[in-house]
Design a protein that fits this description.
Shape: globular
Number of helices: 10
Radius of gyration: 20 Å
Mean pLDDT: 97
Largest sheet: 10 strands, mixed
Strand order of the largest sheet: 10-14-13-15-16-21-20-19-17-18
Helix content: 10-25%
Length: 373
């Protein structure tokens, strides 16, 4: 299937398609993870983006029902060097192409992903358009120019749950190849900005009963339930897009902070806590996307290899109100903070892995200890 690609820097090329047909506009980023393409594609934080995979072979293990990181898939498309329709894995249930077609996601292969990755590193993340219908460069450029940029769209409304629900699944049991049954001791609320399912699994794995609520939840409701002893804390999830556009969500978090409710934030939740403390985030040149980012824990001196997926970061002057707990050894950007005189901490990276290393899961136990304490 012939596919045309046009980037806002003027680059036009054609490649082959193996996913859904149609035309899509989004932001192009690259991911350096060597495994876990299904988890990456179904991560809601990629809403509105095209993912360039630096791993050369994609599709070789197929897809299955257990490895999805959300109930949907919100990325605009994926770009790979070599796609394998035939898969070989005892857990595989269908080829990746069938999954992409069902979810309406473009799949693009036979592209020079090395050159694209180098270009994004040099010029930064940018908007692009891909189409299996339109092959006129000028027409594609016109459509792209008229389309809103990713920072102008509130993708949280698309990926957040609309109704509250209790998460009843535990962590993945690697020996039995199934999910454990959770045994909750203390209940928390998880505000869903696009939460990965494995984050919720890890929260239940440390004894927390997790009620997932929409991003529109009111501060009054949470405060009332906290004061009544019904919940012991609030988790702020990951999610897509520019955190600076989420004015209502920041206002809610500010009220929770004023009430001294224990909170833990990951990725977007980490960024929203910074903004709620009047420390605006900034956009990185090409973001951190991959499963091989070294992060130093400043309290222990240990280096954790982490999974990351974010385009935005908290500012250096957050040190005025928070203790820096983790830093990225690639670029020295801030990866974790603990706020002074508040039962609140957060990290920019993904301690739940899926895919990625498992070295940072201790953070979920820290949150559970804070909630129970």
């Amino acid at each position: 299937m012939r596919t045309a690609i046009y980037l806002e820097n003027g680059l036009y090329f054609e490649a082959e398609g193996f996913g859904a047909e149609g035309t899509a506009v989004g932001e192009i980023v690259f991911n350096t993870s060597m495994t876990g393409y299904q988890e990456i594609i179904t991560d809601p934080s990629y809403a509105g983006q095209f993912i360039v995979f630096t791993a050369t072979e994609i599709g070789n293990v197929g897809v299955n029902d257990d490895d999805n990181e959300s109930r949907g898939a919100y990325t605009k498309g994926i770009i790979v060097r070599s796609y394998q329709e035939g898969y070989s894995n005892f857990r595989g249930q269908e080829p990746l192409s069938a999954f992409l077609k069902r979810k309406g996601i473009l799949g693009i292969c036979e592209a020079d992903t090395r050159a694209l990755t180098q270009m994004i590193r040099d010029e930064g993340a940018m908007m692009m358009i891909a189409s299996t219908e339109i092959f006129d460069k000028n027409e594609l450029a016109t459509i792209l120019k008229a389309s809103p940029r990713i920072e102008e769209i509130n993708y949280i409304r698309e990926v957040s749950t609309t109704d509250a629900y209790h998460h009843s699944r535990g962590a993945w049991n690697e020996k039995l190849h199934c999910y454990n049954e959770p045994c909750p001791v203390k209940k928390i609320i998880a505000i869903d900005f696009g939460a990965k399912l494995n984050i919720l699994n890890e929260l239940t794995a440390v004894g927390l009963g997790v009620e997932v609520v929409p991003h529109t939840v009111s501060a009054d409701e949470i405060i009332a339930r906290f004061d009544a002893g019904e919940i012991g804390g609030v988790f702020l999830s990951n999610g897509p897009g520019d955190p600076m556009v989420l004015k209502d969500e920041v206002a809610t978090i500010k009220r929770l902070l004023a009430h001294k409710i224990p909170m833990f934030g990951i990725c977007l939740g980490h960024q929203l806590l910074s903004i709620a403390h009047d420390k605006p985030t900034y956009k990185l040149k090409f973001g951190h996307h991959g499963g091989n980012h070294p992060v130093k824990n400043l309290a222990t001196g240990m280096v954790e290899i982490t999974a990351q997926n974010h385009n935005y970061n908290v500012p250096d002057d957050i040190v005025e109100i928070a203790e820096i707990t983790h830093i990225n050894l690639f670029d020295n950007s801030i990866e974790g903070v603990r706020y002074k005189d508040e039962p609140v901490f957060s990290v920019q990276y993904h301690p739940e892995s899926s895919p990625g290393p498992h070295e940072s899961k201790y953070l979920f136990k820290q949150f559970a200890d804070m909630v129970r304490g």
